[in-house]
Structure formats: structure tokens, C-alpha cells
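S.,

Sequence below, as promised.
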Amino acid sequence: MILKVKKLSSDSVLPSYAHPGDAGLDMFANEKVKILPGQAVKIKTGISVEIPKGYVGLVWDKSGMATNHKLKKLSGVIDSGYRGEVLLSLINLSNVTYILEKGHKVSQMLIQKVETVKIKEVKNLSETKRGKGGFGSTGK
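The prediction came back faster than expected:
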């Protein structure tokens, strides 16, 4: 599969895999951004993408940023029909201001197959052992 990527500025960094076999393409900031504690920001990547029909780009955290700096992603889905600039959204869950430099890794994107489903309204769903149990119902 080929992912077509358009640079929207000459200094944009193309998505790339850090290591052979990695699932996620690293996505890079195309601007310097100051993220205050508790603040959510949109970060420009300076690129747009052409994800093939039948696929989706799913945006995930960079584990080091999430674990070490408490920066979590808020954006998540890039549909195959979208052709605008890829914007990445982060929230700073720490009590320290974080400076994201231009060219730094922000998030990672996985390209995955999408199944389109037909919706059918029903009166009842099949019974399962789990039933309606959720949010901790399976124990610690």
C-alpha cells in the first residue's frame, strides 16, 4: 500500500516509521507550541494525506510523551475522504508547561482496514454471560 502525503510547507516532516516493523507512523509538529497545564491544543503537521478508500488513519499517543510528560492525544480518526491538513490535538495533564518544538514527534498514526456495516434496528440482542456488565465488572 502507498500512503500519498502532500507537504503544505517546504519544511514539513513526512510521517515515518522509527524502526522496521513498527505499526505506527511518527507524526511531527510543524510549529512550536507552548502547552500549559490542563490546556488542550491543536498542532499543525504541515501535511495532508490521501488514505486509500477502505482504510482509516488512527492517531495514538507517543508512549514516551504520555508516560514521561502526561501529554495525551485527543484527536483520533483521519477518514479516507479527508484532504485537509492533519491536525493533532494534545492535552497537558501535568502541572508543568510543556514546549513542543517544531519538528518533534507528536503522535503516531496507524493505517488500518475499515469494515463498513449495515445498521439494523432490533427489539432484542442475544444474551451473553457478561450481559450489561461494564466499567470494572470483570474485577481487578
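The chain has one helix and eleven strands.

Coffee later?
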